[in-house]
Write a structure and sequence with these properties.
This protein is an alpha/beta fold and 259 residues long. 31% of the residues lie in helices and 24% in strands. It has 2 domains: 67 residues, Ribosomal Protein L25, Chain P (Beta Barrel); 169 residues, 3-Layer(aba) Sandwich (Alpha/beta knot).
Length: 259
């Protein structure tokens, strides 16, 4: 977790805005334990704090203990590493370890949000408990800190497939990855849509990704009826978690957000 602020090896932490007041920052108990016992930080050392609103702060630690850690804000500036394209992923509800990989890697690449989708071929025994949701949120935070993001991707509640289709109506350009039937390549569609110039680039994009068994033809037809474009991610059949990483990378690359 290193940031270029003229300070070597500076660790980064997201905090809620209410913990930033009067030129000071109060870290959470979990962050305090990490600073004191894992990182062995000392007063006078510097860290980077992010408010999830686009600002990053250079903070000098004033007091460090496993229970309570505080710091003094020395300066602030806009976080530079957020993508211009706001990409929301709608991955089918996968087994926990696979969805965790999607959350981690796609946060690193640049996704702005995740909305797990319950589709026809999902494992209906997968329950989104509060503990599991909290674990997913921690994975997103850790991935965002590691990759020097300026904002945390939003984790939406799990949603049924028809509701997800309705949710993206009128909200940017939407795609659904499909390994069968008539569809264009995702990269080809992006090149065609973006070739008219930067002024015509969609600000928001959405990408639906299926479960291990893929989407059904009925689901694809429903998606088409909502203006969601079926696309291929290439000539080879990808695992669900691989498809999410590839699709996110293609969109970020074609929109210039990996340059």
């Amino acid at each position: 977790m290193v940031v270029s602020l003229g300070l070597p090896d500076v660790h980064r932490f997201f905090v809620s805005p209410e913990r930033l007041a009067h030129g000071k920052v109060e870290f959470t108990p979990e962050q305090s334990r990490q600073l004191a016992t894992v990182l062995r930080a000392r007063p006078g050392e510097h860290v980077i704090v992010l408010d999830n609103g686009g600002w990053m702060y250079d903070v000098e630690l004033a007091a460090v203990s496993p229970e309570t850690t505080s710091g003094i804000i020395c300066s602030r500036r806009l976080a530079p590493n957020e993508p211009r394209t706001k990409l929301t992923l709608y991955p089918a509800l996968l087994k926990s370890d696979k969805l965790e990989l999607v959350l981690q890697k796609c946060t690193e690449i640049g996704a702005s949000g995740f909305a797990p989708v319950i589709s026809n071929r999902c494992n209906v025994g997968t329950i989104v408990s509060e503990n599991r949701r909290q674990r997913w949120e921690r994975i997103i935070v850790e991935a965002a800190e590691q990759s020097e993001r300026g904002r945390l991707p939003q984790l939406h509640p799990a949603i049924l497939f028809p509701q997800a289709c309705e949710h993206v109506r009128g909200r940017g350009l939407s795609f659904i990855a499909w390994e069968r039937g008539e569809r264009q390549g995702l990269r080809s569609v992006l090149v065609e849509r973006l070739k008219s110039g930067a002024s015509a680039r969609p600000f928001a994009m959405n990408l639906f990704l299926g479960p291990e068994g893929g989407f059904t033809e009925d689901e694809i037809e429903m998606a088409r009826s909502y203006g969601i474009i079926p696309v291929s991610l290439g000539p080879r059949i990808l695992r669900a978690e691989t498809a999410a990483i590839v699709g996110t990378t293609l969109i970020m690359a074609e929109t210039g957000d990996l340059e």
